[in-house]
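2024-03-11 09:14:02 DEBUG pipeline.ingest accepted 1 chain
2024-03-11 09:14:02 DEBUG pipeline.ingest length=147
2024-03-11 09:14:03 DEBUG pipeline.predict start
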Amino acid sequence: MIAPIDARGERGGGPSVEAALLATLMGLLIGFVIAAGRLVAAESACDQAARAAARIASIERDAAQAQVRGQLAAEAALASQGLTLVQVEVRIDTSQFGTPLGEPGVVRADVACQVRWSDLALPGAPGTHDLHASFASPLDEFRERQR
């Protein structure tokens, strides 16, 4: 059925309704693209924290100091990204500090954190997203180490 034509030759509000729907859909699409970008940035921040923790821990001479310095490095790397994290867990494996000189060893850092969906450019969105990253940094084979 054809819509009645008024005295000016117009059919009603068809184009303006289409424009309003298109603007709404474009706004939603842009919002999801921004949220996806923030999610990638959060995952990158978690990965950067694991790398920093492992590298800093691997240059220490004893395992206890490596644990402390690695933890601080991971927390600093996460804080520099401006994300509000619900929970952060950093585990640093320094068990290979006891290997004899001349044998290879690594320090492994595992970082797990949760970020709210509402912090990822989805205001009001419930729930959290879990992020995990790990990295291993080699110990210098010929550098003196203490257990």
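2024-03-11 09:14:41 DEBUG pipeline.report Residues 110 and 134 are 4 Å apart (CA to CA).
2024-03-11 09:14:41 DEBUG pipeline.predict end
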